[in-house]
Amino acid sequence: MNIEEAVTAATAGSGALLSCLGQPVVAYHVTVILRETDKRHARQMQLALLRRSIEALVDEGLEEIEAERCASQFHGRVGSAWDLLHVAGDTSH
């Protein structure tokens, strides 16, 4: 899997989030997370994006529970894409 495929996989099905934050903004943040080789740092950045995503979705009118559900699904896809992209077996992750 290359970085472009990983970003596409991570953002698939995130229409509400892409709409309120903007596709270029989301793609940029996801790309930065996916390029991070340190797993702990990548997860910290991912959690920060999760919080911002929930806030943005609530600001757009979603109820908090629904915003958390959408953002959590997105969070899971980003984590899975990171794992797939960095499966080289390097123990430094």
According to DSSP, the number of beta strands is 0
The helix/strand order is HHHHH
Fraction of residues in helix: over 70%
N- and C-termini, Cα separation: 17 Å
Which residues sit in consecutive blocks of at least 5 with pLDDT less than 50? none
**Number of continuous helical runs:** 5
| Structural class by sheet pairing and helices | mainly alpha
Q: Please indicate the percent range of residues in DSSP E strands (runs of 2 or more).
A: under 5%
- Largest sheet, strands/sense/barrel: none
Radius of gyration, in Å, reads 13 Å
Shape: globular
Mean pLDDT: 90
Structural notes for this entry:
By secondary structure, this protein is mainly α. The protein is built from five helices and no strands. It has helices at residues 3-11, 15-21, 23-35, 39-59, 64-85. The longest helix has 22 residues, at 64-85. 28% of the residues are buried. The model has no long low-confidence stretch (mean pLDDT 90).
